[in-house]
Every structure is written in structure tokens, then in C-alpha cells.
Amino acid sequence: MGSITDWSKYPRISRIATAAAADVGRGSETLMTYVRGDLFRSARHLALGTEQPRRARRENRRKTKRPARALVVTGFYIPQAQQPAAETDGPLGALEVCMALRAVGGDAWLISDEHCAPVICAAAGDLLPEDRVLIAPHAKPEFDAWFNMVIDLVKRHGIDTLVFIERVGPARDGRPRNMRGVDIAEWTAPLSQLALLELHTIGVGDGGNEIGMGRVADYAISGVVAHGESIACTVAADQLVVAGTSNWGAHALVCAMRALGCPQVEPYLEPDWHRAVLDAIVAAGGLDGVHMTNVPTVDGLDPARYFGTVAQLSAFARH
Q1: Domain that holds residue 177
Q2: Which residues form the signal peptide (predicted)?
């Protein structure tokens, strides 16, 4: 692996960031300008852990550089659909980041909640070990016990990173809202509380209401996103990747790792891998978040455009 701090790699990663942020109608190209450089910093952290968790920095402890060990959180439930389920955007990208981290010598735990569980578990399939998929209960007493279990897990395995990918978070009123402005707290476990663990945190989002978007000024979100003033998530992240779809943002992270000198992630650059996982997600009931229908598409995009961008990002990673 080449020098992970080599800024000569940055122009390639800048192209990846720009392509991933292609606007599909939610202002991603504008929002991305507020976090320029975050894709480079996020990928560098995942590949070599060059940033210390805040807790470690406070205690002045030295940290041996190694690939990140991360909790990767996803799952956006669509209760208004005829057959409610999690959407197709998020689980695919979250699994890709988990697989990439494990490929480079790190580790990852895929996390969601019980309403999204069928889709999340289908995405993981036989690719992740069963003990690397964690499903949070929704009810408070059970959630609190689960949260304590995660605290113990973090300590036991030296987990240092938290990645939120297309995971809705609390707006100004403390309620999680979808892109239509609908309060979905009834179907959403408070996984934003994982930010209290004070791990290095990366957010990936596409609409302003995802955890991590608190890194962008709320006036910027309200200026380009429908219902932005009421849906903008207030939870920030150390770095934020804004993309046209969150799956593209997650793929951009993995492509940036490849650009930084991690050939181990090559299998996840292939569009056919993405198609296979998307098919498994849809077979488990996953929904296109725009159409709210059980079809193998993401955010209402034509498959040629969606997978064309996946392929373009992979090409930028390699050259």
C-alpha cells in the first residue's frame, strides 16, 4: 500500500467525490461544496485509522495506525408503503463499506433496527458472519439494554469508528423525518445515540435528514432541499460524504480507499456485485424510496444511470 497521506492522490478522489454528488433532485451538488475534502479524510481514516477517537485524544493515548474497526449503521424504513419495509438506498452501501473494511484488515459490524431487519439481514446474506449483524430493538427498555451491549462490544473489540449511511436522524424538534416531512419516530430506533460513544464518526447522506448532516449549516439544507427547514438532521459527524444517493456515497468511500492504494477492495468495485446485493435486498421486500415499490431500483433512478455512476466511480478509483 502506498502512502495513505499522499495528497497527490487527492485529485483522483476529488473526481470521485464530484461524480458521486451528481444531483438527482435534492441539491447534493450544492451540499457537497460545504464538505470538500471529507471524502479523502474519511477514506484515509477507514484505510489506516489516521484520526484518533475523541476519547483517546482527550486521554493523550497513542494509537497504533491500522484499518478502522467500525460500527456501520443504516436502514431507512418506509411506513407509508403498501408493503412497509426499508428502502434500497443504504443497506447495499453499508454492506459494501463493511466488506471493504474487512478486506483491508479492519473489521465491521452492520447495525440497523428491527423494522429494517429483514432487508438488512438479506443484504448481509452469507457475506457477513452472523455475529457481525446487530439489530436494535425499538422499545426503550430493550433498546437501553442493547445499547449497553454495544458499549461492551466497542471496548472488547477496540472499535474506533462509527459510520452512518442513509440513517435518518433527529431534526430540530428531536423527531426523525423522511423527505416528505413525515415524522417516523414510531418506526425508528434512536440509533443516533451511538454518537454518544465518542468514536470517530463519518456520515453519508443525500437529502439533509440523515445522521451526520448536522455538519452542514441548516440554512444550506433548507435552501436546496424540499422541507429542508423541518427535516434537517442536527447530529453532526467528523466527516460527511454527500452524494446523489447514499449508496453512491458509500461506494465513493470504497473507491477512494482503492485510489489510496487498497487493491483488496477490487471485488466491490464491480457493478455485478452491486446488482446481486440489490436483488437480494429487493427479494426481502426492499423498496425504492421514491416510488415506494418493491423493484430493483434506487431513489427512482433508471438502472442505466444508477449503475453507470457506480461504474464511473470505480473507473476513477483505478485510474
Answers
A1: 7-318
A2: none
d(CA 123, CA 65): 30
Q: Rounded to the nearest 10 degrees, what angle do helices 246-259 and 38-48 cross at?
A: 60
Within a domain: residue 1? no
Q: What is the pLDDT of residues 283-307, one digit of tens each?
A: 999 999 999 999 999 999 999 999 9
- Specify if 151 maps to a domain: yes
Phi and psi at 259, nearest 5°, equal -65, -30
Give the list of residues 6+ apart from residue 269 with CB closer than 8 angstroms, or none: 254, 255, 258, 314, 317, 318
Name which residue leads in pLDDT, 8 or 252. 252
- Would you state the cell numbers that stand for residue 116, as one nine-digit string? 429494517
Cell of 276: 446481486
Q: For the chain, first and last CA: distance in Å? A: 16
In a domain, 57, yes or no: yes
What would the pLDDT profile of 237-276 be if each residue is shown by its tens digit?
999 999 999 999 999 999 999 999 999 999 999 999 999 9
Cell numbers found for residue 258: 482503492
Confirm whether 162 is domain-assigned.
yes
Number of Cβ atoms within 10 Å of the Cβ of 156: 8
